[in-house]
Amino acid sequence: MAEAMIMDSRLRLLFETGLNDKGEPIYKTKTYSNIRKNATAEQLSQAAKALGELTEYPLAGVERTDNFEIVG
């Protein structure tokens, strides 16, 4: 039977940095690699909020990306 083994995780923070000429939001991202594979959504949310407080821009979103290896 095949199994999926997590290889690595990344945390991506999305910041709203302003508005363009059309009044639409402009976003910038910051990605953190080597996130603990067993980190919970709550832990990542708390970390993202803490990191967001250190920037001048408001935190607009948080994403987690996991890469898996399929074995078997």
TrEMBL record:
Residues 3-71 form the DUF1659 domain. It comes from the Bacteria. This is DUF1659 domain-containing protein. The lineage of its organism: Bacteria, Bacillati, Bacillota, Bacilli, Bacillales.
